[in-house]
Amino acid sequence: MDPCEEFGASRRACVFKDAVKRLNEVSLHARGAERLQALGRWLAALKEIDRETKRTGNSNPASPRNSESEEMATSPRKPYMALFYDMESGGEPMNFRDVFLQSRALEHIITSLILEAPLDEEIGVLVEIFGLCLAGGQELHNAFISSIQDLAKAFSTLSEEIRRSDLLELAQTAVTGLKLSTEAEKLDVEMFFLEQKMSDKQGVPLSKDSNEVQKLKEVTEGLTSSISGIEQKISENRQQKEKAIKYRDSKASEVVETEKALSSEIQALHKRKEQLEAELKEVNSALSSATARHINTQEEKAQFDEASSNIVAHLSIQEEELTKSIAARRAEAGVASTWLGFLEDTWLLQSACLEEKTKAIQHDSQEAKLQFLSIASMNLSYHQEEIKLLLKSLKLISSEDNETDSTIRQRFLETENQVIRVLKLMESLSDEVKTFEIKEDGDEVEKKLLKCIGAIDSFKTELRGLKRPELETGKVNSPVSTSPEVRDEESKAEPDGQEAEATDGWELDTLEEAST
């Protein structure tokens, strides 16, 4: 059956919200053969998407990166590659796997398996679904299935005195913590493509690499937010664990108090029984001595014996009921202990997965930092050599005497603007480098970066110390002595020179403010 048709929508425009709602309803109410059929359909869809993902090398075959996404979505031979759109938030289209992971279908199926033990056919399907949707390996998934079967056996013996909904909610929360995150997978794919681009473009100028550096920053921020979300889930699981422990302790204290009350009550009844037996002896002795009142005493004795028998029978019934109550409380304590063990195992599995993911993220972040610092070192060294050549050119221009003043001035300003532009690029790149922690006793790349950054101020000082050429005032202020053509050319050139001089002063002031 087509996933879109199963959810009540057309193949080309599946609504994400309706699909999630349909999945939740089917997983919540499916039982027996209907549940097995639903699991089979979901497994087939997940396998098809997994094969397509491995073929295309993209975590989301329906994303815009894949040029065949529209063909896969409309092809009748690939019904499980239908696209789902979130009309409220927008964003990229999602496939069935994304919808399945963001719904509560897996949690509801676990609840159904606890209420009704899984069949042998369902166990194999569940193991394959867990391998596609949960973290961990096959051994952990098999252990998880065994834990679910143990919970189903323990839950069948549970009475109504413990709230079943609370225990089922704890199990659902544990499963949610093990589910794979589609957002984290998309971030991993983005990281992979960015690393490929960085490796392919090692020799590209800084103006193109700055975009890649910005994308790396965005990916780093996304990974940081993902880590914070996972840490929040861990804290929630710990709170739930503490609640379960407190609940178990409160129940144990209640059982102890009940046992104490029953013991005191039984002792009081034994004392009363002894008193009644003593009174009975007194009545028997009085009966033997009071033969004159034999008839009346026999009637009183019969009535007294009947009352005593009723009391003893009543006490025996109460004792049996109390014994049954103690056995029921012990069974409930065993169920609670089994549930607590399941939650602790799940929490340990989540902690191991999180630790492994955190180490991988830290390793990738360190590699990205080293790549960025290496590229920055190369660019700063290149610009440093470029500034040295430009400063030499400025010194040569200032010392030339064989050209006109206007030509020298124009060449000087052009070269000076090039120096200022390169200094700005070096300062911008040094600001990016300073966001990382660079130590003076670090590796060769860090030492080289610190040396290049420290050379910026010396270049500024050297630039300001250069002798600037000046135009002769007579050529500018005496337009009468020149021909009309020369006056027109000088009047056109003069605003450009003033604008260049103003721009030059503003550029130098900007560099001075940035350095301070």
TrEMBL record:
Stretches of Basic and acidic residues bias are at 485-495
Q: Tell me which domain of life the UniProt entry assigns to the organism this sequence originates from.
A: Eukaryota
Which sequence ranges form a coiled-coil region, renumbered to this chain? Answer: 259-293
Key word Coiled coil present = yes
Q: Which UniProt keywords apply?
A: Coiled coil
Location of region: Disordered:
53-74, 467-516
Q: Which stretches are tagged as biased composition: Acidic residues? A: 496-516
> Polar residues: which segments have biased composition?
56-66, 475-484
Which protein, by its recorded name, is this? Answer: Uncharacterized protein
Upper classification of the source organism reads: Eukaryota, Viridiplantae, Streptophyta, Embryophyta, Tracheophyta
